[in-house]
Design goal:
- The protein is mainly α and about 250 residues long.
- Helices cover about 55% and strands about 10% of the residues.
- About 35% of the residues are buried.
Length: about 250
């Protein structure tokens, strides 16, 4: 269960009135190997992102509650970004609010304009990628979804790799390694996993996961996995109820 409060505010780009949500706690049900936390529906990342209905400016509640941005930023937004965001929304062909993956992608595109560091931009692109797993639009076929996954992964990897020049938390080395594995960048994946193992002794479950994921990268396995599925495969198999013999092979 997720708790949130609703606040009325205005878009910092165009002044349109809208409501944003400030999310509280949530129930954690598990984690995937790319560090997506699984929660009860609605997932917390769906609650935390917002888009202006008029100009499509997108971001977290703090981006809308911080007051209007400087005039030069507004001018740049309408000159360089607004048509691109509208094109993305029209291509999606969905009614109502923009899909979550597009909202995070737009927020990621705008992050450098608003002065955010590469880590913040990379995490927004990663959330765009996560959103396709949580809430894939029915209007998109599998080929289109694969193209979007690749686009968001490449963007997330590029910004997160850039952030490693300043970021001291070794968990981001693990994260970049896993994103590279999922994107088919096998040598980069193994390199980042090994750098993570060399720099960190904790958390233990990430070290164990990195060791196992290196083996998968060597086998060119880009499959999507839950952390429990990777670390405790026998436990998952024991939860499978075998079909009666007369039903097998049917």
């Amino acid at each position: 269960m997720i708790c949130w409060s609703t606040i009325e505010t205005v878009c910092p780009m165009c002044g349109c009135q809208l409501h944003v949500r400030e999310a509280g706690g949530c129930d954690v049900l598990g984690q995937d190997t790319d560090l997506l936390i699984r929660t009860r529906a609605p997932h917390v990342i769906r609650v935390e992102i917002h888009s202006c209905p008029d100009c499509r400016f997108s971001g977290y509640s703090s981006d809308f509650l911080g007051g209007r941005v400087v005039a030069l930023t507004i001018e740049t937004y309408f000159r360089e970004y607004i048509e691109k965001l509208k094109d993305d929304c029209e291509a999606d062909c969905s009614s109502g609010d923009p899909p979550t993956h597009l909202q995070y992608y737009w927020a990621g595109l705008l992050s450098p304009l608003l002065g955010y560091e590469p880590l913040e931009t990379g995490m927004k692109m990663l959330r765009a990628y996560w959103s396709l797993r949580l809430d894939a639009p029915d209007s998109l076929d599998e080929a289109s979804l694969d193209g979007l996954r690749h686009r968001y992964l490449c963007q997330a990897i590029a910004f997160l790799r850039k952030s490693l020049r300043k970021e001291k938390n070794p968990a981001y080395l693990y994260l970049v390694g896993e994103l590279c594995r999922r994107n088919g960048n096998w040598m980069h994946s193994q390199n980042y996993f090994n750098r993570f193992l060399a720099r960190s002794s904790r958390p233990r479950h990430l070290r164990n996961a990195a060791t196992l994921l290196i083996q998968r990268a060597r086998r060119r396995d880009s499959s999507h996995l839950g952390m429990e599925e990777l670390l405790y495969p026998s436990r998952n198999q024991s939860n499978v109820i075998e079909a009666p013999e007369e039903d097998r092979g049917s």
